[in-house]
Amino acid sequence: MSNTDPIAELLTRIRNAAHARHAELEVAHSKLREAICRVLVAEGFLESAEPTGEGINKKIAIRVRYAPTQQPIMRGIERVSRPSVRRYSGAAEIGRPSRGMGVEIVTTPLGVMTGREARRKKVGGEVLLRVW
After folding, report:
1. I need a surface site. Which of 63, 85, 93, 95 has the fewest CB within 10 A?
2. Residue 57 maps to which CATH number?
């Protein structure tokens, strides 16, 4: 199966697992997917994301984080920059999520980070997604 947008597939699988109340899921490994998952874990939206396996069998085992009421911590996740329409922002233009709840994940020359970190380091890049 051809996958033209692996980041969108990652987000969809996480969104579907959270909606179906699954505790964990596995996705194919890539460095960018692993970096995105690391940021989501650091921001508290995922419980954990660990690479497993070796070579072509390498995967990322993701544990979705839930509130005590069994509601997913991640209320929404949205792809901003797509393969057909890339969205780039300078450090000053990186948007703030609505009412301060949530984060934007940006890929910069310094690596994948939140919009808040990119503004602090005064570096722009491609806005990959928003999570709230």
Report:
1. 85
2. 3.30.1370.30
